[in-house]
Amino acid sequence: MSLIIRNLSDQLVDLVRERVLSGRVPADKAIRQDSLAAELGISKIPLREALFRLEQEGLVQLQANRGFFVRPLSRAEAEEVYALRMKLEPDVMALAAQRATEEEQAAAKAVFATLYQATDEGGDGVGAFNRAFHIALMSPSGLNLTVDILKRLHILSERYVRKHLEPLGRDERANEEHRQMLEAWLARDADGIRALTEQHVKSTLDDLTHQLDAGG
């Protein structure tokens, strides 16, 4: 495949990040830079720069004399990421609900519809659509720095979201929780969306810790 010239560095980061988050790049093998660069139709130099940026995001790690590896999932990382989300996200959601314009509300409903379909069908991209849904509900807050921090936390969360949805029935529960969150948000119910967001993040973490402890 070839890349359209927009911002090569940003495009590469997006493309390689998507491969990492989707699970297409295994965590136990070095990223094959030669084959990946050939697939993308680029040289290894910009690809290596993209990998360094993903290392700063916490998705990959460089091991001396071995190359870049996807960071493995861990209970410790999940607990840290989701604890930070629980501290920041509920209040940001509440403020965003009060400040959202009609256009932003319409955009949030459109993102939810896409997420609902992807989750219900169990297809690819569920993690990315989940991240887009949460960001759509946070962005109208106007707290740009906090939202940027939460965006990074959601990138780190995305592989855990895929892990969380593996057991049967989790997709239906996720859809219902997101539906309730959206309804409270659209109603500008600050207390409601705050409580629902906190419970949503907490229940996801509880499920994940059990899965990761069990090695599932």
Provide a brief overview of the structure.
The protein has 216 residues and is mainly alpha-helical. The chain has helices at 8-22, 33-40, 44-57, 75-99, 102-121, 126-138, 144-164, 170-186, 190-214, and strands spanning 60-63, 67-70.
Can you put this structure into words, describing what you see?
- By secondary structure, the chain is mostly helical.
- 73% of the residues lie in helices and 4% in strands.
- Helix 6 packs antiparallel against helix 7 (144-164).
- The protein starts with 7 loop residues before the first helix and ends with a helix.
- Residues 1-5 have low confidence and may be disordered.
> Order of SSEs, N→C?
HHHEEHHHHHH
The total strand number stands at 2
Count of individual helical segments: 9
Structurally, how many domains make up the residues? 2
**Structural class computed from helices and strand pairing:** mainly alpha
Largest sheet: 2 strands, antiparallel
Low-confidence stretches: 1-5
Q: Which architecture of the largest domain does the CATH hierarchy give at level 2? A: Up-down Bundle
CA distance, first residue to last residue:
35 Å
Taken from the alpha-carbon principal axes, the silhouette is: globular
For the biggest β-sheet, the strand order reads 1-2
Helix % is over 70%
